[in-house]
Automatic annotation (TrEMBL), chains A, B:
SUPFAM superfamilies: Nudix. This is 8-oxo-dGTP diphosphatase. InterPro entries: Nudix_hydrolase, NUDIX_hydrolase-like_dom_sf, NUDIX_hydrolase_CS, NUDIX_hydrolase_dom. Residues 6-134 form the Nudix hydrolase domain.
Amino acid sequence: MSIKTPFVAVDGIIQLFDSNENFQGIVLIERKNPPLGLAIPGGFVEIGESVENALVREMKEETDLDVEIIRLLGVYSDPKRDPRFHTVSIAFVCKAYGSPKAQSDAKEVRVFKIEDIPFDKLVFDHAKILRDYLMR
Amino acid sequence: MSIKTPFVAVDGIIQLFDSNENFQGIVLIERKNPPLGLAIPGGFVEIGESVENALVREMKEETDLDVEIIRLLGVYSDPKRDPRFHTVSIAFVCKAYGSPKAQSDAKEVRVFKIEDIPFDKLVFDHAKILRDYLMR
Protein backbone atom coordinates (compact mmCIF):
# COMPACT_ATOMS: atom_id res chain seq x y z
CA MET A 1 0.00 0.00 0.00
CA SER A 2 1.53 3.30 -1.05
CA ILE A 3 0.06 6.22 0.87
CA LYS A 4 1.20 9.80 0.44
CA THR A 5 -0.27 12.52 2.58
CA PRO A 6 0.84 16.05 3.50
CA PHE A 7 3.33 16.60 6.31
CA VAL A 8 1.87 17.23 9.77
CA ALA A 9 3.09 20.05 11.97
CA VAL A 10 2.01 21.75 15.18
CA ASP A 11 2.03 25.45 16.03
CA GLY A 12 1.55 26.95 19.47
CA ILE A 13 0.21 30.32 20.45
CA ILE A 14 1.97 30.74 23.78
CA GLN A 15 0.30 33.04 26.27
CA LEU A 16 3.13 34.07 28.59
CA PHE A 17 2.42 34.94 32.23
CA ASP A 18 4.62 36.01 35.14
CA SER A 19 4.49 34.23 38.48
CA ASN A 20 1.70 36.59 39.63
CA GLU A 21 -0.52 35.51 36.70
CA ASN A 22 -0.03 38.82 34.90
CA PHE A 23 -0.22 38.38 31.16
CA GLN A 24 3.10 39.30 29.55
CA GLY A 25 2.33 38.74 25.89
CA ILE A 26 2.42 36.24 23.04
CA VAL A 27 5.70 34.47 22.27
CA LEU A 28 6.91 34.65 18.66
CA ILE A 29 10.19 33.54 17.15
CA GLU A 30 12.49 34.96 14.56
CA ARG A 31 13.04 32.00 12.22
CA LYS A 32 16.56 30.73 11.63
CA ASN A 33 15.64 28.80 8.47
CA PRO A 34 13.73 29.86 5.34
CA PRO A 35 11.15 31.19 5.06
CA LEU A 36 12.75 33.90 7.22
CA GLY A 37 10.56 36.15 9.32
CA LEU A 38 8.51 36.09 12.46
CA ALA A 39 6.48 32.98 13.32
CA ILE A 40 4.41 31.27 15.92
CA PRO A 41 6.72 28.59 17.33
CA GLY A 42 6.08 25.15 15.87
CA GLY A 43 7.50 22.19 14.05
CA PHE A 44 6.90 18.80 12.54
CA VAL A 45 5.22 15.94 14.33
CA GLU A 46 7.42 12.87 14.60
CA ILE A 47 6.18 9.39 13.85
CA GLY A 48 5.32 7.82 17.19
CA GLU A 49 4.35 10.94 19.12
CA SER A 50 0.93 12.51 19.60
CA VAL A 51 0.35 16.04 18.35
CA GLU A 52 0.07 17.21 21.96
CA ASN A 53 3.48 15.74 22.82
CA ALA A 54 4.93 17.22 19.63
CA LEU A 55 3.61 20.63 20.63
CA VAL A 56 5.18 20.49 24.11
CA ARG A 57 8.48 19.25 22.65
CA GLU A 58 8.64 21.88 19.92
CA MET A 59 7.78 24.74 22.27
CA LYS A 60 10.61 23.62 24.57
CA GLU A 61 13.05 23.25 21.66
CA GLU A 62 12.32 26.68 20.26
CA THR A 63 11.63 28.82 23.33
CA ASP A 64 12.84 26.78 26.35
CA LEU A 65 9.34 27.16 27.82
CA ASP A 66 7.32 24.34 29.37
CA VAL A 67 3.85 24.89 28.01
CA GLU A 68 0.48 23.69 29.16
CA ILE A 69 -2.04 23.17 26.37
CA ILE A 70 -5.26 25.13 26.86
CA ARG A 71 -7.21 24.18 23.74
CA LEU A 72 -7.12 23.20 20.11
CA LEU A 73 -7.44 26.34 17.99
CA GLY A 74 -7.81 24.85 14.53
CA VAL A 75 -6.34 22.88 11.66
CA TYR A 76 -4.70 24.82 8.84
CA SER A 77 -4.25 22.89 5.64
CA ASP A 78 -4.38 25.15 2.59
CA PRO A 79 -1.92 23.47 0.19
CA LYS A 80 -0.31 26.88 -0.42
CA ARG A 81 0.12 27.92 3.22
CA ASP A 82 3.70 26.64 3.29
CA PRO A 83 5.75 27.73 0.25
CA ARG A 84 8.02 24.68 0.52
CA PHE A 85 5.54 21.80 0.45
CA HIS A 86 2.08 20.88 1.68
CA THR A 87 1.97 20.96 5.46
CA VAL A 88 -1.12 20.52 7.62
CA SER A 89 -0.70 22.45 10.85
CA ILE A 90 -2.58 21.71 14.03
CA ALA A 91 -2.67 24.95 16.04
CA PHE A 92 -3.04 25.02 19.81
CA VAL A 93 -3.43 27.76 22.39
CA CYS A 94 -1.16 27.21 25.36
CA LYS A 95 0.17 28.87 28.46
CA ALA A 96 3.61 29.22 29.98
CA TYR A 97 5.45 30.97 32.79
CA GLY A 98 8.95 32.39 32.95
CA SER A 99 11.36 33.78 30.41
CA PRO A 100 11.67 32.34 26.92
CA LYS A 101 15.15 31.79 25.52
CA ALA A 102 15.96 31.17 21.87
CA GLN A 103 17.01 27.54 21.51
CA SER A 104 18.64 25.77 18.57
CA ASP A 105 15.70 26.09 16.19
CA ALA A 106 15.03 29.81 16.65
CA LYS A 107 17.29 32.81 16.00
CA GLU A 108 15.52 34.99 18.52
CA VAL A 109 12.45 34.80 20.76
CA ARG A 110 10.29 37.85 21.33
CA VAL A 111 7.23 38.58 23.46
CA PHE A 112 4.56 40.88 22.05
CA LYS A 113 1.62 42.59 23.70
CA ILE A 114 -1.53 41.90 21.68
CA GLU A 115 -1.60 45.42 20.27
CA ASP A 116 2.03 45.25 19.18
CA ILE A 117 1.96 42.03 17.15
CA PRO A 118 3.51 42.89 13.75
CA PHE A 119 1.05 41.01 11.55
CA ASP A 120 2.84 42.02 8.36
CA LYS A 121 6.09 40.35 9.47
CA LEU A 122 4.56 36.92 10.03
CA VAL A 123 5.42 34.03 7.71
CA PHE A 124 3.18 31.22 6.38
CA ASP A 125 -0.48 31.81 7.37
CA HIS A 126 0.49 32.73 10.92
CA ALA A 127 -1.21 36.15 10.69
CA LYS A 128 -4.46 34.30 9.97
CA ILE A 129 -3.90 31.84 12.83
CA LEU A 130 -3.26 34.70 15.25
CA ARG A 131 -6.33 36.58 14.03
CA ASP A 132 -8.45 33.44 14.54
CA TYR A 133 -7.05 33.19 18.06
CA LEU A 134 -7.80 36.83 18.87
CA MET A 135 -11.33 36.61 17.51
CA ARG A 136 -12.47 33.70 19.68
CA MET B 1 15.77 18.05 4.07
CA SER B 2 14.34 14.67 4.99
CA ILE B 3 11.08 15.01 6.86
CA LYS B 4 8.98 12.10 8.07
CA THR B 5 5.71 12.71 9.79
CA PRO B 6 2.63 10.56 10.47
CA PHE B 7 -0.01 10.11 7.77
CA VAL B 8 -2.94 12.55 7.87
CA ALA B 9 -6.52 11.37 7.57
CA VAL B 10 -9.98 12.83 8.05
CA ASP B 11 -13.03 11.26 9.67
CA GLY B 12 -16.58 12.55 9.49
CA ILE B 13 -19.43 12.11 11.91
CA ILE B 14 -22.32 12.48 9.48
CA GLN B 15 -25.60 13.61 11.02
CA LEU B 16 -28.21 12.45 8.51
CA PHE B 17 -31.50 14.34 8.08
CA ASP B 18 -34.51 13.84 5.88
CA SER B 19 -35.89 16.65 3.74
CA ASN B 20 -38.10 17.80 6.64
CA GLU B 21 -35.04 18.29 8.87
CA ASN B 22 -35.86 15.22 10.95
CA PHE B 23 -32.74 13.62 12.32
CA GLN B 24 -32.34 10.10 10.93
CA GLY B 25 -29.17 8.99 12.63
CA ILE B 26 -25.39 8.79 12.35
CA VAL B 27 -23.87 7.21 9.24
CA LEU B 28 -21.34 4.43 9.82
CA ILE B 29 -19.68 2.10 7.34
CA GLU B 30 -18.80 -1.54 7.35
CA ARG B 31 -15.15 -1.52 6.29
CA LYS B 32 -14.11 -3.42 3.19
CA ASN B 33 -10.40 -3.44 4.09
CA PRO B 34 -8.60 -4.42 7.30
CA PRO B 35 -9.09 -3.61 10.07
CA LEU B 36 -12.58 -4.98 9.45
CA GLY B 37 -15.49 -3.68 11.47
CA LEU B 38 -17.69 -0.65 11.77
CA ALA B 39 -16.19 2.80 11.32
CA ILE B 40 -16.90 6.46 10.99
CA PRO B 41 -16.37 7.16 7.27
CA GLY B 42 -13.00 8.70 6.48
CA GLY B 43 -9.78 8.42 4.56
CA PHE B 44 -6.39 9.87 3.82
CA VAL B 45 -5.77 13.47 2.88
CA GLU B 46 -4.12 13.86 -0.50
CA ILE B 47 -1.20 16.17 -1.11
CA GLY B 48 -2.67 19.33 -2.60
CA GLU B 49 -6.08 19.29 -0.95
CA SER B 50 -7.24 20.91 2.28
CA VAL B 51 -8.54 18.71 5.07
CA GLU B 52 -12.04 20.15 4.49
CA ASN B 53 -11.95 19.17 0.81
CA ALA B 54 -10.58 15.75 1.72
CA LEU B 55 -13.49 15.28 4.12
CA VAL B 56 -16.13 16.16 1.53
CA ARG B 57 -14.44 13.91 -1.06
CA GLU B 58 -14.09 10.94 1.28
CA MET B 59 -17.68 11.17 2.52
CA LYS B 60 -18.87 11.15 -1.10
CA GLU B 61 -16.58 8.24 -2.01
CA GLU B 62 -17.72 6.10 0.89
CA THR B 63 -21.40 7.00 1.36
CA ASP B 64 -22.43 8.90 -1.79
CA LEU B 65 -23.55 11.77 0.48
CA ASP B 66 -22.75 15.43 -0.11
CA VAL B 67 -21.86 16.68 3.33
CA GLU B 68 -21.72 20.13 4.82
CA ILE B 69 -19.10 20.60 7.52
CA ILE B 70 -20.53 21.88 10.80
CA ARG B 71 -17.43 22.02 12.99
CA LEU B 72 -14.06 20.58 13.81
CA LEU B 73 -14.47 17.96 16.54
CA GLY B 74 -10.86 17.19 17.37
CA VAL B 75 -7.50 15.80 16.33
CA TYR B 76 -6.74 12.18 17.21
CA SER B 77 -3.09 11.27 17.09
CA ASP B 78 -2.25 8.53 19.55
CA PRO B 79 0.49 6.57 17.76
CA LYS B 80 -1.35 3.32 18.57
CA ARG B 81 -4.82 4.39 17.37
CA ASP B 82 -4.30 2.78 13.96
CA PRO B 83 -2.84 -0.73 14.18
CA ARG B 84 -1.21 -0.42 10.74
CA PHE B 85 0.89 2.74 11.13
CA HIS B 86 0.79 6.15 12.79
CA THR B 87 -2.13 8.17 11.43
CA VAL B 88 -3.27 11.56 12.69
CA SER B 89 -6.99 11.93 12.15
CA ILE B 90 -8.79 15.24 11.95
CA ALA B 91 -12.40 14.59 12.94
CA PHE B 92 -15.28 16.77 11.80
CA VAL B 93 -18.98 16.89 12.55
CA CYS B 94 -21.02 17.28 9.37
CA LYS B 95 -24.54 17.14 8.04
CA ALA B 96 -26.16 15.51 5.03
CA TYR B 97 -29.54 14.83 3.48
CA GLY B 98 -30.80 11.85 1.53
CA SER B 99 -29.95 8.18 1.44
CA PRO B 100 -26.40 6.93 1.80
CA LYS B 101 -25.20 4.21 -0.58
CA ALA B 102 -22.10 2.12 -0.10
CA GLN B 103 -19.53 3.20 -2.66
CA SER B 104 -16.26 1.59 -3.67
CA ASP B 105 -14.47 2.07 -0.36
CA ALA B 106 -17.21 0.71 1.91
CA LYS B 107 -18.81 -2.73 2.03
CA GLU B 108 -22.03 -1.44 3.53
CA VAL B 109 -23.39 1.82 4.89
CA ARG B 110 -25.67 1.90 7.91
CA VAL B 111 -27.53 4.59 9.78
CA PHE B 112 -27.80 4.36 13.57
CA LYS B 113 -29.95 6.20 16.06
CA ILE B 114 -27.77 7.56 18.85
CA GLU B 115 -28.99 4.96 21.32
CA ASP B 116 -28.30 2.11 18.89
CA ILE B 117 -24.67 2.84 18.03
CA PRO B 118 -22.76 -0.44 18.62
CA PHE B 119 -19.73 1.04 20.35
CA ASP B 120 -18.08 -2.36 20.78
CA LYS B 121 -18.04 -2.96 17.01
CA LEU B 122 -16.13 0.20 16.13
CA VAL B 123 -12.55 -0.02 14.86
CA PHE B 124 -9.58 2.27 15.56
CA ASP B 125 -10.46 4.85 18.27
CA HIS B 126 -13.82 5.57 16.66
CA ALA B 127 -15.75 4.71 19.83
CA LYS B 128 -13.79 7.46 21.59
CA ILE B 129 -14.39 9.94 18.75
CA LEU B 130 -18.12 9.23 18.84
CA ARG B 131 -18.22 9.57 22.63
CA ASP B 132 -16.42 12.93 22.38
CA TYR B 133 -19.02 14.01 19.82
CA LEU B 134 -21.94 12.94 22.00
CA MET B 135 -20.56 14.63 25.08
CA ARG B 136 -20.23 18.13 23.55
